[in-house]
Design goal:
This protein is mainly beta. The protein has two domains: 79 residues, 2-Layer Sandwich (Alpha-Beta Plaits); 43 residues, Aspartate carbamoyltransferase regulatory subunit, C-terminal domain (SH3 type barrels, Roll), CATH 2.30.30.20. The chain contains two helices and nine strands. It has a five-stranded antiparallel β-sheet with strand order 2-3-1-4-5, covered by helices on one side. The protein has a four-stranded antiparallel β-sheet with strand order 6-7-8-9, with helices on one face. Strand 2 and strand 3 form a beta hairpin. The N and C termini lie far apart (34 Å). The mean pLDDT is 90. This is Aspartate carbamoyltransferase regulatory subunit. Keywords: Metal-binding, Pyrimidine biosynthesis, Zinc. InterPro entries: Asp_carbamoyltransf_reg_N, Asp_carbamoylTrfase_reg, Asp_carbamoyltrfase_reg_C, Asp_carbatrfase_reg_C_sf, Asp_carbatrfase_reg_N_sf.
Length: 139
């Protein structure tokens, strides 16, 4: 069995849907951090069967909108002095800014240097639409 040490100060993103851990890593830009980051893929979970986990040493905040967009089933645990001090559950954000790009070649975002803005249009189906052209974002 693989053993990953606990962290003293930082964040643990737990209950990430199995297979989505690397996407979380990319969109949160964790590769740009100058700190220890552990990604655990396909860990056993009593609740979900399998899950991914990310442990980030020394970082105490992350973009919950990005995490909520990728996987709103995840939990964010803040660890201080080896103890859990806060547990958050991200929600689907109403608005995404520069997280995903519009694929419509006729959209203003493909020719102008403007923010990529999407609004939540269907919470149950996790669907977003471009602010400028109404193109639906497809994962």
């Amino acid at each position: 069995m693989l053993n990953i040490d606990s962290i003293e100060n930082g964040i643990v993103i737990d209950h990430i849907t199995a297979g989505r851990g690397m996407r979380v890593y990319e969109l949160l830009e964790l590769d740009k951090l100058d700190t220890c980051v552990a990604i655990i893929k396909n860990a056993k979970s009593n609740k979900f069967g399998r899950k991914d986990i990310i442990k980030i040493e020394g970082v105490l905040n992350i973009d919950l909108d990005v995490l909520g967009f990728i996987d709103n089933n995840a939990t964010v645990c803040t660890i201080l002095n080896g103890r859990l001090v806060e547990k958050k559950k991200p929600t689907l954000p109403e608005k995404l800014v520069n997280i995903v790009s519009c694929k419509n070649p006729r959209c203003i975002t493909s020719i102008e240097d403007v923010d990529q803005v999407f609004y939540l249009c269907d919470e149950k189906a996790h669907r977003y639409r471009c602010k400028y052209c109404e193109q639906e974002y497809k994962k």
